[in-house]
Amino acid sequence: MTSDLLRQPASGEDVLEVASEIAPFEFAPHNCFACGTLNTGGLGLTMHVEPGRSWIETTLDRRFEGWEGMAHGGILCTILDEVMAWALVGADDWGVTARMSVDFRKPVPIGRPI
Question: What phi, psi does 23 have (nearest 5°)?
Fold first, then answer.
């Protein structure tokens, strides 16, 4: 993370607010594919953060489809990666993914809340 990303937003500037029981903080608009507000082609995830955990609620549209009617596995891994990183934020820490292995149990349908 860059210090510019964690800076105090200017008056009237959009920010991503993170619901948290730890010291509240805001992010300046950024281009992250998963949670950035500036990336018009991204997922636009709204992260929910509490101490030691995070989650999202979203509905994936057809642009994220893999096989017919199913979310693409790479998109699901992207969501998982983002949620894992934000769980660290809930513990007042930061980190990045060094390795990830996923065993999918069943398809995630497109167009339904997850």
Answer: -50, 125
Return per-residue pLDDT of the chain as tens, 114 residues.
433 444 445 555 444 444 444 455 567 889 999 999 999 999 999 988 888 889 999 999 999 999 999 999 999 999 999 999 999 988 888 888 999 999 999 999 999 999
Helix (H) or strand (E) holding 49: strand 48-50
Distance between CA 43 and CA 7 in Å, rounded? 23
The position carrying tokens 């997850």 is 114
Q: Is the dihedral of CA 8, 12, 18, 20 positive or negative?
A: positive
Residues with Cβ within 8 Å of residue 7, at least 6 apart in sequence: 28
How many angstroms separate the first and last alpha carbons of the chain? 28
